[in-house]
Amino acid sequence: MCGRYVVKNPVTKTSSLVKSAIQVEDNENYNAHPNQKLPVIKKYKNGNTLENLKWGLVPNWAKNKDFKSLINARIETIDEKISFKKLIKNKRCVAVADGFYEWKREEKKTPHYFTRKDTNPIFFAGIYEEDQFCLITEEAKDNNTEIHHRQPVIINQTDINRYLNLELQGSVFLKECSKPNLVFHEVSKDVNKPTNNSASLVQAV
Q: What is the pTM of this model?
């Protein structure tokens, strides 16, 4: 799964990818977490926009006010689950990031920070409904399995518009498109507390 990530200066990062940024500002968030409003790319007929949506999706059919928001959707079942199957067809988005955290399951969970090996920005494949979004995950690849058995689906910048093209079958495209190589290192447990937010969170320990 993916429950925390880092996003710095999203407006600058996406200036060549979107037509406009709507109520999004350049800032540095080293501990992006569920229920925060975070920048995502959405497609409209007149071009792409960068908008803030809340991370965590509560489906329209959920009548229970205590329904726990969904922050991840498994690519393996996204075309079947009632919460996601219409969204992957009609409501796709791409979340902007620099890296993400995963916790290695030991006696005590140990946080690790993942980035692209080539240091380029990260673009998470996602789905949205109204003002909420959810990240799509897949089985972990290569050495990433040393830390966690799942990871977010990351697409290359050149594939963003193809993923947002609703004429293509979203899940099939995500399974077949090329994925970037990732690297990771252990970081401080300070990241465990959502209110901690500084560059020191991504430093290796």
A: 0.95
